[in-house]
Design brief:
The protein is an alpha/beta fold. It folds into 3 domains: about 190 residues, no CATH class; about 270 residues, Alkaline Phosphatase, subunit A; about 100 residues, Arylsulfatase, C-terminal domain (2-Layer Sandwich). It has 26 helices and 17 strands. Strands 1, 2, 3, 4, 5, 6, 9, 10 and 11 form a 9-stranded mixed sheet that branches. The protein has a 4-stranded antiparallel sheet with strand order 12-15-16-17, covered by helices on one side. Helix 3 packs across helix 15. The longest helix is centred in the N-terminal third of the chain and has 37 residues. About 45% of the residues are buried.
């Protein structure tokens, strides 16, 4: 067979393999297309059938290109070998060589991710991984590196032999066969690594940063679902946060800071606007399109007006920073994670699993961002590099900058990279939660698990996975802090370490965030560390503070006036005089329930589970929102509370009216005993404050005004 005929045969056989492989993926995907995102089968079939067709066509195209490229590469290598050694080369050989090479690459990538990023496979495939434990146990970084070196060496050997064998005859066609695939593969590899290594690692001297003295830079580093009690500075028994703890030794640590609503979108909005949720109107992760247009001032707008460069960077958990109109000039964020069209574009599980093997890189980020930013996939290292790169870029400019970096590093399902996921886990554990909290893998499982008790979960394993996530986040914090020092910015940059909320691990009968206000608020309590480069003093503030106080505090430290209509207040007086007490009451409301919560009183106001109350009012936009008829019901059913260091008063709406529970937090931190009868004066005082706060909620005011039956809670006295 001639060389030209061999190349033609390799191409045709590769097209055939690509068609067969993509056809299989397409068949399975059509069969299970409703397994994408929330279970709204009727809506998908009625309104998004053409969009599903577009998605499958798009994903099929990428799959075809990948399979064809791998198969063609493998067939050309065998063709070269056959020409060198005189082997036969026909349809069978072309098909076998292409399929074997493709299978080997897919198998290698699967094993690579199984070891280094197992949560990527779990988030993509949604199947149990306990059966893969024997394969995982065989893997190691050394083994995978050896396999890669052996494969590349084998290809290089064929290349060298080909050149030596045919050099005297200058067999250009064979050289093309041997060189072209290698050149293309090498070019792609170098491009990917060039993007990864784009962070400026060399130290930038302070005199060459381009920045002028004056307003300080501001860098906020946050992670989703970080409990305050897991930091070393809080006395946790494991050394998970050495970098954060080191920063704390020259910073102000707010030991008792609370978010008003322990869900990501409302909490981040409260952080940036310094307003209570009923004022900024983001009361859940499913706001309406109208509510997304934040009308109250926020720290980003204030800094923009002060001449700052502003940027938001993050992974899938940070989508809310771009979803609302905060005004960031630069955004490196994914699209809305609660958009049905976005979820459909991720494709069914089969496509996700195959494409995710190839999309977990900068090329995948550009071409398949929906899969690159797949929920549950750890991107701490990648987004950490982006943050450092942004710092390097801003360091060369004269204007001060504000960067808000927010990561899903510590978010459910608690997936992390190798070796973090095994740092603290039981090495003999072989259950389904070996890599992530797999009992909450699919949307249906997440909802169902809300009704489960502690026995449903492998809590010691899950807690250990969570600790590994915290350690990985802390390492990224250390890299960012070190990069600020390298760039000569350490002495002119305010740094804030924060979280949007914590998490309940069944301390109060349930897991998750914001489901209950009972106990010592592990969901609502958030870790806050504020580093002021002009007064680097270690101090811990015991006074109760609020997440809404952070923006005014940061603005005050930067010498910028806060808008007058912010609900939060600056903490600079407390920071300057830590012994002085401030009468700061922290108010809270519970989050939207996905389903019935364990331990909820039977007469508590409630509503159907989350799948029954969600709607897509704008089918073109595709955003998931609460149905209009349930908006007031969700707000009305919320528990609310007021607390300080000593007392907590909880408001619970019931079928027969409203109930109040008073707890002495200093003697009863788990809120086991209601003491309102023992302390009537204290109860009346805190009740009046809480009722006044609830009365500021326009929805609750409207509900109270419409009340004509004793079954509707009354709070206005």
């Amino acid at each position: 067979m001639s060389t030209i005929n061999g190349i033609t045969l390799a191409a045709l056989s590769s097209f055939l393999l690509a068609a067969m492989g993509t056809g299989y993926l397409l068949f399975v995907s059509i069969k299970h297309h409703t397994r994408t995102g929330p279970k709204v089968k009727e809506t998908i079939e009625k309104h998004y059938s053409s969009y599903i067709f577009y998605t499958l066509f798009r994903l099929s195209g990428y799959s075809t290109v990948i399979i064809f490229s791998l198969s063609f590469f493998g067939s050309l290598i065998y063709l070269a070998i056959s020409l060198l050694l005189g082997f036969s080369y026909g349809w069978l050989q072309a098909l076998l060589s292409g399929s074997i090479f493709t299978s080997m690459i897919v198998a290698y990538l699967f094993c690579h991710h199984l070891l280094h990023t197992p949560s990527l496979l779990l988030a993509s495939a949604q199947f149990r991984f306990s059966r893969l434990h024997p394969l995982w146990a065989m893997l190691s970084p050394t083994l995978l590196k050896s396999i890669k070196i052996f494969g590349l060496s084998t290809i290089a050997f064929v290349l060298i032999c080909g050149h030596i064998r045919f050099f005297p005859t200058v067999h250009l066609m064979l050289w093309l066969i041997l060189d072209a695939p290698m050149v293309m593969a090498a070019a792609l590899w170098l491009w990917l690594w060039a993007n990864r290594l784009s962070v400026i690692q060399t130290q930038i001297d302070g005199t060459t940063t381009g920045q002028q003295s004056g307003s300080p830079n501001i860098v906020m580093i946050g992670t989703d679902t970080l409990r305050a009690d897991r930091l070393g500075v809080s006395g946790y028994h494991r050394d998970l946060s050495p970098n954060i703890d080191r920063l704390t030794k020259k910073s102000t640590y707010l030991k008792n800071c609370y978010t008003p609503l322990a869900r990501t979108a409302p909490s981040l909005t409260s952080l940036l606007t310094a307003c209570w949720p009923h004022r900024h109107k983001i009361r859940s992760n499913f706001p309406s399109a109208a509510d997304l247009k934040i009308t109250v001032p926020n720290i980003v707008e204030v800094l923009n007006n002060a001449g700052y460069e502003t940027a938001a960077i993050g992974d899938w958990a940070a989508a809310d920073l771009g979803k609302m109109n905060f005004g960031f000039k630069t955004k490196q964020l994914p699209d809305d994670q609660w958009n049905l069209k976005y979820l459909i574009r991720q494709g069914p599980a089969t496509f996700r699993l195959f494409l995710s093997l190839f999309a977990h890189n900068q090329l995948g980020r550009k071409l398949l961002p929906e899969i690159y930013y797949l929920a549950g996939v750890p991107l701490s290292q990648q987004t950490g590099e982006e943050c450092r790169q942004m710092i390097s870029q801003f360091a060369k400019q004269k204007a001060p900058f504000y960067i808000n970096y927010f990561s899903a590093a510590t978010h459910v399902p608690f997936g992390s990279n190798y070796p973090y996921y095994q740092l603290y886990t039981d090495p003999d554990y072989k259950g389904d939660s070996q890599f992530i909290m797999t009992s909450v893998n699919t949307p249906e499982e997440i909802i169902a698990s809300q009704e489960k008790g502690e026995a449903y979960f492998d809590l010691p394993q899950i807690s250990a996975l969570y600790d590994g996530c915290i350690k990985q986040f802390d390492d990224e914090v250390g890299k960012i802090l070190q990069h600020l020092k390298h760039c000569g910015l350490e002495e002119n940059t305010i740094v804030v370490i924060y979280s949007d909320h914590g998490a309940d691990f069944f301390e109060n009968g349930c897991w998750g965030q914001g489901n209950t206000l009972l106990g010592d608020d592990p969901s609502n309590r958030v870790p806050i560390i504020i580093y002021d480069p002009f007064k680097p003093t270690a101090q811990a503030i015991d006074t109760s503070t609020r997440l809404i106080d952070i923006a005014p505090t940061v603005l005050d430290l930067a010498g910028i006036s806060s808008p007058q209509n912010m609900d939060g207040c600056s903490l600079t007086d407390i920071i300057a005089n830590p012994g002085e007490a401030m009468d700061l009451h922290s108010y809270h409301e519970s989050g939207i329930w996905l389903s019935n919560i364990p331990g909820m009183r039977k007469d508590h106001l409630s509503y159907p589970n989350i799948l029954d109350i969600l709607d897509i009012p704008d089918k073109e936009l595709g955003m998931l929102c609460i149905k209009d008829e349930y908006i007031d019901k969700v707000i009305e059913a919320k528990d609310r509370s007021i607390r300080d260091q000593k007392w907590k008063l909880i408001y619970q709406p019931t079928l027969s009216g409203s109930d109040y529970l008073l707890f002495d937090m200093s003697n009863d931190p788990q809120c086991a005993t209601d003491v309102k009868l023992q302390y009537p004066d204290i109860f009346n005082h805190y009740k009046s404050l809480l009722d006044e706060w609830i009365g500021q909620d326009p929805i609750m005011t409207e509900i109270s005004a419409k009340s004509t039956t004793p079954n509707t809670p009354h709070f206005i006295q």
